[in-house]
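Lecture 7 notes: from sequence to structure.

We start with a single chain of 240 residues. Read the sequence below before looking at the structure.
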Amino acid sequence: MKLLAVDTATEACSAALLVDGVVTSREAVLARGHAERILPMVDELLREAGLALGALDAIAFGRGPGAFTGVRIAVSIAQGLAFGAGIPAVAVSDLAALGALALERAMAECGAAAADAEALVCLDARMGEVYYGRVRAHPQLGVELLEEGLAAPAALFTDLPGDGRVRVAAGHGFSAYPALAERLGPSLRAIWPELLPRAAEIARLGARAFAAGLAVPAEAAAPVYLRDQVASQSGRPRAQ
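Now the structure, written as tokens:
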């Protein structure tokens, strides 16, 4: 499996290349200028691996939610590269990618078993709102995005089940709204507000989604903004 991933939905601008299960990546945290940085990252990864775009199986991208311009950049880059190479695209939720990173850290630092952990992820959406999600491990897709949406911090995670799961939190929504972290603190093992979605996790989740048949033609790649959209709160596994 050879897959390229790009993400520009937040301040974190990153690209990753997955080749036979091994991921290499390039990352930078930027206030602006993602469009100028992402393609050189892609070129560097491909050059170092000795691969042409046409040798890839697919291109994965962070489909949002996140900054409107940043999400559009990732979708446009993925569409252009995939269309030019004649390969499909795979959309990955940025909240799912952030959750995957948080769950990995929970296992490493908190001693949590994957099957018993849940990540609450929260990205600052401005205007007094956050993009939020609940993420658990999933055997086929890597992670399962139980719900995602856009809401005021005071309305979030008010009815978490008392199921004994190890819960951790990640994303700059928790630093933007400290009262949220304070309210949830007693139910959380750890909070990592510095974590942001990365192309490395998008590559891994994208490879699993590709194997599950969830790739789409390049022209069908689409963003998910959540703002001005109806949030999905289904308990069923979602295409990541």
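The helical segments are 34-49, 68-85, 94-109, 173-176, 178-184, 199-211. Keep this in mind for problem set 3.
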